[in-house]
Amino acid sequence: MNLKQSWRNQLWPLRIMRIWLGVTWIYAGFDKASDPGFLKAGSSTFIGTQLSAFSVNSPIGLIFNKLIENSTQVGIFIMLAEFSIGAATLLWIAPTWAAFGGFAMSLTLWLASTWNVKPYFLASNSAYTILWLSYFLFLYGSRRRSKVSLDRRGFIRGSTVAAIAIAGAGLGRVFPKSVPGASSGPKNIIKDAVVKVGQTHNFVSKAGTPAVLFRTKNGIFAYSAVCTHQGCTVQFNSAAENLQCPCHGAVFDPFNEAKVVTGPTNTALPKIKVATEGAWIVEA
């Protein structure tokens, strides 16, 4: 079935669903491609930083812990996959497989970033999961479903999707967007009385990334727990009194501005501004 026939033969409800899903996935890919920090370690929007946050809050956090070591490659794959799924859906190129890819991606994002959103219907990824699943089941169960062809025409169509994905990613780098900063208002972290001198507390920063709070006899301070090498989440070793990265062995001294003790990175952990307001310790 060619492109024109695919649109003509579909019912209007399916055309609307197809347009919405295809355009949204292309936009999602472009949003990542045009984000200067998406593939830049240390950025608040770095894919590794996002994976670190997912590993803390997601029911499948162990999977994300494994992916963090290859954050940049994961980010490139996600970006190109979104372009490819969107383009294949609109152009009717292996549409059944594209729909399944959209379902798998939406389900993963639901489990990763919005699993804890309550009530559940406020999480957009849950709605996209059902939309893609419904579209996939219709295509799979209908006579109009397409098979991946290895002939010359199939190769050209597949190459077209790949070219669109690469071109879209390149276009996003040429026209970068400005990235808004985190919320300026204070965020409650924990009741002040709960954290005693000599204790630490792990929390999620306003940027949505893992962070760690310290209390000493001199006061409170906090750092990002995202390693400045590849975005893994560092852990406090109370015996050694340092922050250690489980992925590549970087060590930071939290009692000396979180400076690097052992590489492979040379960049200290970013400091997070915290203060005491009333009964709470807050992120300023």
TrEMBL record:
Keywords linked to the UniProt accession: 2Fe-2S, Disulfide bond, Iron, Iron-sulfur, Membrane, Metal-binding, Transmembrane, Transmembrane helix
NCBIfam families: TAT_signal_seq (TIGR01409)
Keyword Transmembrane helix tagged: yes
Entry-linked Gene3D superfamilies: Rieske [2Fe-2S] iron-sulphur domain
SUPFAM superfamilies documented for this protein: ISP domain (SSF50022)
Rieske domain boundaries: 207-283
TM region(s), chain numbering: 12-30, 42-64, 76-100, 120-142, 154-175
A GO CC term attached to the entry: membrane
PROSITE patterns named in the record: RIESKE
Molecular-function GO terms, alphabetical: 2 iron, 2 sulfur cluster binding; metal ion binding
Cofactors required: [2Fe-2S] cluster
Protein name: Unannotated protein
